[in-house]
Amino acid sequence: MVGLHGTTEHPWVVFVDQTPGLRGELSASGFIELVQVVAITTPTGALHVEAPAGTGTVWFEKGAVVHAAFGQERGAVAFQRMLHWQCGRFRVDATARAPERTIDASTTQLLLESARILDEEQASSGRERDQERAAE
After folding, report:
1. For residue 30, what are the CA distances in angstroms to 25, 37, 85, 90, 119?
2. Of the candidates 34, 23, 22, the residue with the CA atom closest to the CA atom of residue 83
3. How far apart are CA 99 and CA 59, in angstroms?
4. Cα–Cα distance measured from residue 62 to residue 116, given in angstroms and rounded to the nearest whole number
5. Sheet holding 64-70, edge to edge
6. Which pLDDT does position 35 carry in this prediction?
7. Apex CA 111: angle with CA 105 and CA 114, to 5°?
8. Which is it for the CA torsion 62, 21, 69, 111, positive or negative?
């Protein structure tokens, strides 16, 4: 990534981030899709995400999610807190190794459970909106 951060004395100064790895913007496709892509493209490493809600990291070993951290949360709870993130920045560090293993479920199980949780939350939110409208 190249950033133009020149000063008035040296406006031509360009800083280049040499860290290898995938990086970009988290889009409307969301966190779950990003996790799937990283699991396939970077089987071992860490996915670091900066979102308006905070910063979280998911670690992979051989394509499996083995640890997640967000704030004080660890494991599947931390992973599930990051589910709602649909904007922010991410980078993948293929050299990182998980500091611990807090997730024993397969990545498929974790993603299916996460999708189920999202669906239930969206359905619940929709029911609440309908009840509010009916009460008006």
Report:
1. 10, 11, 6, 11, 14
2. 34
3. 9
4. 25
5. 23-26, 88-93, 45-51, 54-61, 64-70, 73-74
6. 92
7. 105
8. negative
> What is the count of structural domains for the chain?
1
- Among 104, 95, 116, smallest CA distance to 32 is for 116
Range of the domain at 126: 19-135
pTM for the whole structure: 0.75
Alpha-carbon distance of 59 to 80, in angstroms, equals: 14
Return the pLDDT at 1: 39
- CB neighbour class for 95 (10 Å; exposed up to 12, middle 13-18, buried from 19): exposed
| Residue 7 forms part of a structural domain | no
Count the alpha carbons within 13 Å of 65 in the hemisphere toward its beta carbon. Answer: 28
- Asked if residue 5 is part of any domain, the answer here is no
C-alpha–C-alpha distance, residues 107 and 53, integer Å:
23
SS3 120: helix
pLDDT in tens, 97-106: 999 999 999 9
